[in-house]
Amino acid sequence: MDSIIFDVDGTLWDSTEIVAEAWTKLIRRETDLNMTITSQRLHQLFGQLLPDIAKQIFPQETTQRQLELIDLCCQEEHRALLKTPADTYEGLEETLIELSKKYALFIVSNCQAGYIEVFLEATGLEKYFKGHLCPGDTGNAKADNIRQIIRDHHLNDAVYVGDTAGDCRASKEAGVPFVFAAYGFGQVEQPDYVIQRPLDLLKLF
User: Model pTM?
Assistant: First the structure.
């Protein structure tokens, strides 16, 4: 193995409390909707592509308006997370320090452009990662972005670490083993490996 590719939400940090508050604030400011977004709802939505999330939150709106609103929500969350960073999972930086001595580390997430950069700036963890991709950068979903990271960085034996069934499907579609972060948001059947906390990666690899 020469590299590890990570998801973000539910794998490296849990930003849902801050994001839920930011989205609720934006929706109340920009619309007449009487809606409160909760962290629990975001646990169910995160990991999906943004247009699909927008359809579920704003089903009464046109597709164009859904995309406009979700983009405004994302801008609001970026500001909120840079002002008040979410907590990373316990032991994450210690884990990254050790893993980065042996492996090239990357991030691939189904998020909007700029979100991974916000995560890296807010946490100060950028120095441990060699690169990152998301649909906002490429227009492609997770499996294709995993493949592109592998091609662009000439990786021979990568694994992917994520916390949802969608992560598992994308990993298998991309042809890389999947490590299930069981402490995250989702449930996964038959992953290749399971960890209960980030530090478990040091035992696994």
Answer: 0.93
